[in-house]
Every structure is written in C-alpha cells, then in structure tokens.
Amino acid sequence: MATTTATPNHVKNLDLADQGRKRIEWANQSMPVLQSIRKEFIKNQPLKGIRIAACLHVTTETANLMITLRDGGADVALCASNPLSTQDDVAAALARDFSIQTYAIKGEDNDSYYSHIMSAIDHKPHFTMDDGCDLVTLLHTKRKDALAGVIAGTEETTTGVIRLRAMAKDGVLGYPVVAVNDALTKHMFDNRYGTGQSTIDGVVRCTNVLLAGAKFVVAGYGWCGRGLAMRARGMGAEVIVTEIDPTRALEAVMDGLRVMSMTEAAKIGDIFVTVTGNKSVIRQEHFELMKNGAIVANSGHFNVEIDIPALERISSSKRPTREFVEEYAMRDGRKIYLLGEGRLINLAAAEGHPASVMDMSFANQALAADYLVKNHGSLEKKVYSVPQDLDKRVAKLKLESMSIGIDRLTSEQEEYLASWSEGT
C-alpha cells in the first residue's frame, strides 16, 4: 500500500509516521466504498498525468482519499484547510510513506497556513480539491499565474460552495467546479451524522462537561444543525435552536425543539455551538447576556461565526484553563469559555467525522474527479452538482458493503409511474 520515495513536505515530525500509518489503515477498514473505487482506479488509471492540489482537513480519512487519487495515477499535493484540523502523525505518514507532498502542521499560524496553500499551488495543479474555497480564492487573486493550467475542481463544504457560487455569479470563476457538498450521500450523512457526533465528541473531550440537563444552543438548523441537535438531545440536553430561516425554524419546532432568537437563548444557554456558515452569529450583545460559565464553540468551517474580537474587547483578561479551552473574564465577574479558538471544534479537539460516514463523502470526491477529468471540456465555468448517477452509485455501494438489499420496481410499476392515463 505504501512507498518510501521522498517528497517535498512541511510536516511537524516525520518520526510520527509509523503511528500515522497505523491510524490510516484503521480508518481504511471502515471505508469500503472508497476501497472499491480505489481498486477500479488502480486498474483503469483515470487520473494518469493529472496534478492535484488538495486543501482539505489532514485526517486519516483524507489520507485514504489521497492514496486513492494517487493510485488512480494522480500526482498529489495536500495542504490543510484549517490551522487546527491537521493530525500530525497522518501528515507525516503521507509525506514519508505514500509519496504525497504534504504541507500541514496542527496549530500553524496564519502565515504558515497560507504559505502551505501556496506550496500546494506551486505544484501547478490541473485539478483542485478544496474544503472552504481558500485554495481556489488564492488561485483567483494572488496566484493567477497558476490558474490557466487548472481544468476543473471539487468543493467539499457548504461554506466553500457559497463562496464559489458568488464567484460564478460575478463571472470570475476560472473553471468548472463540482459541489460535492450538494450530493445527497454527502450532506444528508456527513453533515448530519458526522458533524453531529464529532462536534459532541470535541466539546466533551476538551471540557468533560455533562450534557444531560444542560441547555444546549444550536445556531443554525441546516443539515449540520439537525445532526448536532439530534445528538445533543440524545445525550439528555435540552436543545434550543436559533435560526434566520422561518421554514427551518418551523422544522425545528416540529422536531420538538425550542426555537428562539439568539438574544433570548444567550440569557439561558449553557453551551453554544454555531453551525451556520455565516459570520458574527454570536456577537457582543450576546456575550453580555450570557450566564457565568457559558461555553461557546463553533463547528462551521471558519472561526468568524463567533465574534472573537468583540469577546476580546469586553473581557478584562483571558487565560487557558484546559487544552483547547480559553477562559475570558468579564469585567462584571462572569467567565465565558471559548473552545478551540472558535475553529472547527470537532477537528480542533477531536478527530473529525467517523471514517464510515466520510467513506461516502470521499467516494463522491474521487468519482467527481474522474468525471471532471473526462468531461471538463464540455462544461462551463460554473458550479455543478454531483451527477445523480454518481450519487446513487455511492449509496448503492454503501448498502452493498453493509449487506443490505432493497427492492426493485416491477415492469408493471415502471409502466404505472411513466404513464398518466391510469387513475383511481
């Protein structure tokens, strides 16, 4: 499975590679769909000669995607899509054992983060694989020299897709991009079940707080918010949802949850987690209302969902109290606790989504890459959804891996659904 060819890299410590490789192999056991695609890629070499620059969370699951792309013939360079999401042992193993250029260190500062993206762009990619659109943005701003060689790309997240659609609307997007996040087998499972479980994991790991009986405020009731609310409720928390969309708010009510404005929730909440994809969701006026000991975290892609500069302004002091926990002392004596610097708490303090759910997301990534390499010439410079046949193929492969069969339409049923003449 591995090679030992030296590659350019900037990782924390190559001596961590042995442990990283074991963890990559562990995750691979729970990714049967990606395994089957990898076998096809090895045989058919659909990405032969394609240079890929990937800006993703450097985790065990991502590692298996990178290995699949490499085994499909691609020349891959990987950088982190968030300063706190890298698993250093995984980065070391990719660089040392799998011949994948890797530029990622957990806790890297802002300059290093962007320097690593630049290193991935120096790879002169034909194809981009982004998680949040930072790599694509740099290609269209500071690194236009490398833009002409890019034929297509994919985007993993809700946040990134929002940015890409804005670029397409403004007529500046330089190549076609498939929004992997739009695949049903991505957002209905990864966002809901993955984010739900891994966010709770991150919050509990760094605080050891008891969720049972706590008032748990979920900001945003999209797929990530739905999953987070479901898991918090399952742990015994009293879940409160804040929303700006009336339909989603109504859905939360019908799901049996309390719904109110953030101003009202701020007064009573014990734990707050933002999952909206927007900025300044929790602001100064909310911090000023929070009770002593309130815990604030984010599981949206960027750390702008919490207005951290405002929290800094109104606090008299701050100090670390536990790993990934910063205590902010308010001038009136209250204390507010910020987790993971406001970054993705599920990756900052935990390991991110379980491999079995990322199996579907990264299967979509691999199949979308294959599709785009074959079809980019006929596509416009805009954002596309994952083709429905690929999406359904991922679902089918996942069911097969679980030894689950489903019904098929009979010829009579097919005829009935295709006709209009037969009524009551």
UniProtKB/TrEMBL annotation:
<dbReference type="InterPro" id="IPR036291">
    <property type="entry name" value="NAD(P)-bd_dom_sf"/>
</dbReference>
<dbReference type="GO" id="GO:0071269">
    <property type="term" value="P:L-homocysteine biosynthetic process"/>
</dbReference>
<feature type="binding site">
    <location>
        <begin position="299"/>
        <end position="301"/>
    </location>
    <ligand>
        <name>NAD(+)</name>
    </ligand>
</feature>
<dbReference type="GO" id="GO:0005829">
    <property type="term" value="C:cytosol"/>
</dbReference>
<feature type="binding site">
    <location>
        <begin position="157"/>
        <end position="159"/>
    </location>
    <ligand>
        <name>NAD(+)</name>
    </ligand>
</feature>
<keyword id="KW-0378">Hydrolase</keyword>
<feature type="binding site">
    <location>
        <position position="186"/>
    </location>
    <ligand>
        <name>substrate</name>
    </ligand>
</feature>
<feature type="binding site">
    <location>
        <begin position="220"/>
        <end position="225"/>
    </location>
    <ligand>
        <name>NAD(+)</name>
    </ligand>
</feature>
<protein>
    <recommendedName>
        <fullName>Adenosylhomocysteinase</fullName>
        <ecNumber>3.13.2.1</ecNumber>
    </recommendedName>
</protein>
<feature type="domain" description="S-adenosyl-L-homocysteine hydrolase NAD binding">
    <location>
        <begin position="191"/>
        <end position="352"/>
    </location>
</feature>
<dbReference type="InterPro" id="IPR000043">
    <property type="entry name" value="Adenosylhomocysteinase-like"/>
</dbReference>
<dbReference type="Pfam" id="PF00670">
    <property type="entry name" value="AdoHcyase_NAD"/>
</dbReference>
<dbReference type="GO" id="GO:0033353">
    <property type="term" value="P:S-adenosylmethionine cycle"/>
</dbReference>
<comment type="function">
    <text>May play a key role in the regulation of the intracellular concentration of adenosylhomocysteine.</text>
</comment>
<comment type="pathway">
    <text>Amino-acid biosynthesis; L-homocysteine biosynthesis; L-homocysteine from S-adenosyl-L-homocysteine: step 1/1.</text>
</comment>
<keyword id="KW-0963">Cytoplasm</keyword>
<feature type="binding site">
    <location>
        <position position="131"/>
    </location>
    <ligand>
        <name>substrate</name>
    </ligand>
</feature>
<comment type="similarity">
    <text>Belongs to the adenosylhomocysteinase family.</text>
</comment>
<dbReference type="InterPro" id="IPR015878">
    <property type="entry name" value="Ado_hCys_hydrolase_NAD-bd"/>
</dbReference>
<keyword id="KW-0520">NAD</keyword>
<dbReference type="InterPro" id="IPR042172">
    <property type="entry name" value="Adenosylhomocyst_ase-like_sf"/>
</dbReference>
<feature type="binding site">
    <location>
        <position position="190"/>
    </location>
    <ligand>
        <name>substrate</name>
    </ligand>
</feature>
<feature type="binding site">
    <location>
        <begin position="222"/>
        <end position="227"/>
    </location>
    <ligand>
        <name>NAD(+)</name>
    </ligand>
</feature>
<dbReference type="GO" id="GO:0004013">
    <property type="term" value="F:adenosylhomocysteinase activity"/>
</dbReference>
<feature type="binding site">
    <location>
        <position position="156"/>
    </location>
    <ligand>
        <name>substrate</name>
    </ligand>
</feature>
<dbReference type="Pfam" id="PF05221">
    <property type="entry name" value="AdoHcyase"/>
</dbReference>
<keyword id="KW-0554">One-carbon metabolism</keyword>
<feature type="binding site">
    <location>
        <position position="243"/>
    </location>
    <ligand>
        <name>NAD(+)</name>
    </ligand>
</feature>
<feature type="binding site">
    <location>
        <position position="346"/>
    </location>
    <ligand>
        <name>NAD(+)</name>
    </ligand>
</feature>
<dbReference type="InterPro" id="IPR020082">
    <property type="entry name" value="S-Ado-L-homoCys_hydrolase_CS"/>
</dbReference>
<dbReference type="GO" id="GO:0006730">
    <property type="term" value="P:one-carbon metabolic process"/>
</dbReference>
<feature type="binding site">
    <location>
        <position position="59"/>
    </location>
    <ligand>
        <name>substrate</name>
    </ligand>
</feature>
<feature type="binding site">
    <location>
        <position position="191"/>
    </location>
    <ligand>
        <name>NAD(+)</name>
    </ligand>
</feature>
<feature type="binding site">
    <location>
        <position position="353"/>
    </location>
    <ligand>
        <name>NAD(+)</name>
    </ligand>
</feature>
<feature type="binding site">
    <location>
        <position position="278"/>
    </location>
    <ligand>
        <name>NAD(+)</name>
    </ligand>
</feature>
